[in-house]
Amino acid sequence: MIRTILASALLALGLNAPARAAGIGDMTDTERQVFRDEVRAYLLENPEVLMEAIAVLEQRQARAQAGNDASLVKTNAQAIFDDGYSWVGGNPEGDVTLVEFMDYRCSYCRKAFDEVAQLVSEDGNIRFVVKEFPILGEQSLQAARFAIATKKVAGDAAYKQVHDALMTMRGNVTDASLKAVAERFDLEPDPIMEKMDSDAVNAIIRKNRELAQRLQISGTPTFVLEDRMLRGYVPLENMQEIVSEVRAD
Fold first, then answer.
1. How confident is the model at residue 188, as a pLDDT?
2. Which of the listed residues 43, 75, 107 is the one where a domain comes to its end?
3. Does 16 score more than 50 pLDDT?
4. Do 92 and 55 fall into the same domain?
5. Residue 143 · residue 203 · CB < 8 Å
6. 92 and 60 share one domain
7. Is the pLDDT of residue 224 over 90?
C-alpha cells in the first residue's frame, strides 16, 4: 500500500524521472541512496503530496471496484434479482430493484431495517428483494431457517411478519422464542419448526451463500441496486441519492 502511494506521488511530481530513465536497478548504491534521500526530504517538506496521492489512489480503486461489481452483477443477474424463492416486497413492478443480503443478528442490518423500509415505502417504485444470508453463528442460521420455513409453510405475508419480528427481536434465538414469534401472528409453530431442517430450506441457504461468494460478499448488510453493489450500511439520505443516480443513468 505505502509503496503504491509513494509511486503515485512520485509519478505525479516527476521525481522518479531518473529512475524511470535508467531504471532504479541500474543505479549505483550511492545514486540510489541519494535519490531516496531527495524523495524523503521532499515528502517531509510537502506531506500534503501523500494525501493527494492517497485520494487519487482511492478514486482509482473505487472506479475499478465499481466496474468489477457491475460485471459480477451482470453475470449473476438471474440469481440476484429473480431466483424464484426469495421474498419480494415493495412495488413488484418498480422501475429499480434493491436486493439486500442480511443477517438477523447483524447490528448494522438492524440499524438499516427501518431506513430501508422508509426508503421503499416513501419512494413507491422500488422492488425490494430479501436474501437470507446467515453468517454470524448458529442463532443467525436458526433465525434464517425459521423465516424461510415460514414462507414455505404459510406464504409471503407470514414471512414478512416473521422477518420484521426477527429483525427487531431482543434476546436469544431459541426454539421457545421462535415459537413465540409464530404464535404472535396466529401461525401454527410446529409445521414451521419441522420444516426448518428440510432439504428445501437448506438448499436456499446454500444457494444464497454460493451467490454471495460469487459476488465477493463477505459481510452484511450488502445491497445490490441495479448494477451497483453497496457493501455495508448506507444511511437513508445516501441511499435516496444513489437511487436517484441509478434512475438518471
1. 97
2. 75
3. no
4. no
5. no
6. no
7. yes
Same domain, 201 and 114: yes
Same domain, 113 and 198: yes
Q: What is the DSSP letter of 223?
A: E
Cis peptide before 221 (omega within 30 of 0): yes
pLDDT surpassing 60 at residue 60: yes
pLDDT confidence of residue 18: 46
Residues constituting the chain: 249
Same domain, yes or no: 116 and 200: yes
Q: Say whether pLDDT at 50 is over 90.
A: no
How far is residue 56 CA from its own chain's centroid? 24
Report residue 46 as a C-alpha cell: 510537502
Q: Where are the alpha helices (DSSP H) in the chain?
A: 2-13, 17-22, 29-45, 48-75, 77-81, 107-123, 138-154, 156-168, 175-184, 189-195, 199-214, 236-248
In this structure, the number of other CB atoms found within 10 A of the CB of residue 43 comes to 18
Say whether pLDDT at 78 is over 80.
Answer: yes
Residues 6+ apart with CB under 8 A from 144: 103, 104, 132, 133, 134, 205
Domains: count for the chain = 2
Domain containing 106 equals: 77-248
Contacts of 232 (CB under 8 A, 6+ apart): 108, 219, 221, 222
Q: Which triple of cell numbers denotes residue 151?
A: 414462507
Q: In the numeric block, which cell numbers belong to residue 45?
A: 517538506
Q: Are residues 214 and 150 in the same domain?
A: yes
Angle between helix 2-13 and helix 29-45 axes, rounded to 10 deg: 90
Q: Which backbone phi and psi does 28 adopt, to 5 degrees?
A: -75, 165
Name the band, by pLDDT with cuts 50, 70 and 90, for residue 26: confident
